[in-house]
Amino acid sequence: LPTSAGALPLADYVVTRTVELVVHTDDLNAAVPGLDVPYDRQALAAATRLLADALAVKAPGGSTEVRIPPYAVVQCVEGPRHTRGTPPNVVETDPLTWVRLATGRLDWRDALDGAKVSASGERADLGALLPLLS
């Protein structure tokens, strides 16, 4: 499909619309008190994976492991690569928090302060890399 950023395979285009669906569902729930529009599990999974992969492209490397169970794990950020056991730099959060961080709906510092994300290690601060989309 032709897009403003160049040609895009149909499957990739559909995934971008899936991210948009999840983000707009979240925005709608936040905007209307008492509204509880459910998140489609498969859409949330696809959005989580796409945004995790986007982080790995933006910050290539293997020093930090970003875990978003149950949908995604990526290695990113330049630095010493770990090969066995628990990596020294780990970030972990839930899928919806990850979507909010990656799209600028939630600030990195606010997520840490609110215990929405755990980050350990000297290369686990993703604040300068987020949001991925805005």
What does this 3D model show about the protein?
This protein has 134 residues and is of the alpha+beta class. The chain contains 4 helices and 6 strands. Helices cover 40% and strands 16% of the residues. It has a 4-stranded mixed sheet with strand order 4-3-5-6. Strands 1-2 form a two-stranded antiparallel ribbon. The longest helix is centred in the N-terminal third of the chain and has 22 residues, at 10-31.
CATH-assigned fold name: Nonspecific Lipid-transfer Protein, Chain A
CATH class: Alpha Beta
Stretches where pLDDT is under 50 for at least 5 consecutive residues are none
Got a strand count?
A: 6
Percent helix, as a range, is 40-55%
**H and E string:** EEHHEEEHHE
Report strand %: 15-25%
- Which architecture name does CATH use? 2-Layer Sandwich
The secondary-structure class comes to alpha+beta
How do the strands and helices of this protein lay out in sequence?
Blueprint: E1 2-3, E2 6-7, H1 10-31, H2 41-58, E3 64-68, E4 72-76, E5 90-93, H3 95-102, H4 108-113, E6 117-120
Parallel strand pairs: 3-5
Antiparallel strand pairs: 1-2, 3-4, 5-6
Task: Name the features.
single chain, 134 residues, alpha+beta, Nonspecific Lipid-transfer Protein, Chain A, two-stranded antiparallel ribbon, globular
Write a concise synopsis of the structure shown.
This protein is α+β, with helices and mostly antiparallel strands and 134 residues long.
